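Final report, closing paragraph on structural work. Over the funding period we assembled a curated collection of sequence-structure pairs, and we close with a single example.
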Amino acid sequence: MQEEILTSIHNIPIKRNFVLNLPYNVSLKSRAKALRKAGNFSEVVYWTEVRNKSFWNIDFDRQRIIGNYIVDFYVKALGLVVEIDGEIHNFQEKYDEKREMYLKELGLKVFRISTTKMLFDTENVMKDLEQFIIAEYKSINNHPAQGHPSKGGEKRKKYEKTNHPTPSNSSFLLQTLRGKTSNKKTRYYGNSR
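Its predicted structure, as stored:
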């Protein structure tokens, strides 16, 4: 069976790993919808990084029901769960272990991020996610690299070169959302530190 390539990250082909027939508890539907609307701040920051296929042309779902659980983010094409762990997870380790084991038994991979790291080290979180996806989903066949990087990868490189504020710049994002940027010039040309 030939591998289907989903995307390329840094010219490394990433294979599709769609997991079929995941269990779905329909009674959690309204809870998942409420969680999507409420969204905690670290999830909002993460969502700005990945929404609309802006991260290497990979499609992420928010608050996805899998069995009797609701995961923070899910990539159908990879069978990848992304969990952002806040303080509550320090007090529910056994529950988290049981949940993660269940997800892995279904054939899913789990990538965990701490809330603190997501808020204050977003750029490195996204680099870690790239490395995780490459390690877990790199094509083992010799596929030629796809013709062009995704819009998301190109955008990230452009921002790194020009040092414009991006969703990756957590301190800027925090200031903007709290209304602490001094003027429009700051919003478009970066903070002066």
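Confidence is low (pLDDT under 50) at residues 146-168, 180-193. Residues 5-137 form a domain with the Endonuclease; Chain A fold (CATH 3.40.960.10). We thank the funder for supporting this effort.
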